Structures are given as structure tokens and as C-alpha cells.
Amino acid sequence: MTNLHETQLRFNPKIKIKTDDVQLSNNAGLLFYAEFKHAAGLDQIIDQAAAQLSEKRIGPHYSKTSLLNQMLELNIAGYGNDVAADALQHDPVMKQVHGTTDLAPQTDYFSFFKCANL
Fold it and tell me: Does residue 86 surpass a pLDDT of 50?
């Protein structure tokens, strides 16, 4: 019988990390960033920073907070502005982390940051 270590994340109790050698996401390391962000209270800081950004998008589909969070994750994952960044958009674990079924494609957050003069 194998003993599996299981950890339930505080920022989203629906997500559990188990070490059973099954790969569900190439970006699972970002779960620990999300947990740290929640524990350190960075969610509120990111919300405040996003609210202060002025931008000129017409009919935006994604919130400024969502785009800012995704951009932070891209940089932490080392994707930068690489085409590999779209991996986050289709990753089922990252969709669960963000509580959505629709994450922004890389063109949306790069356009947002260009419009927000960042």
C-alpha cells in the first residue's frame, strides 16, 4: 500500500495536491505561488493595483485583476511573451485556480498592458 501525501489549498479548498505520480498540469508549481499570494494577502494588493490602472480597452472581456494575475503567473513561470504562454490559457488546473472556464489568451493581456502604459 502506498502512502500519498495530500494537501488542501487554503485559497481554493476545491484544489488538492497529491503526490501520486499523475501529471495533470505542467504549471502545477504555480499552485504554490497562488497559495503564497493568498496567505500573504497579495490578492487585495493586486486588486487595488488593478483598480488604479487606467486603460482604454473597448468592451473588455477580462477584468484588469484577472489580466494582472495572469501576467504575474506568466513571469513567474518564465513564459514572458513567448507563445508557450498560451499553455496557461488551456491548462485545466489553472482554470480551476482562477475559478473560471475561460482564461485570457496572451494577446489580450499583452494588449491590456500596452493600453495601460505598463
Answer: yes
Strands of 1-118, DSSP E: 6-8, 16-18
Q: Region 73-86: what's the mean pLDDT?
A: 74
* Alpha-carbon dihedral 36, 31, 68, 109, rounded to 10 degrees: 160
Q: Which residue has the cell 495601460?
A: 116
- pLDDT of 83 higher than 50: yes
Mean pLDDT of 37-55: 87
Dihedral of CA 98/104/110/112: which sign? negative
d(CA 67, CA 113): 9
Cβ pair 25, 91 in contact under 8 A? yes
- CA–CA separation, 20 vs 68, rounded Å? 32
**Which three cell numbers mark 98?**
482562477
Q: Which residues contact 57 (CB under 8 A, 6 or more apart)?
A: 111, 112, 115
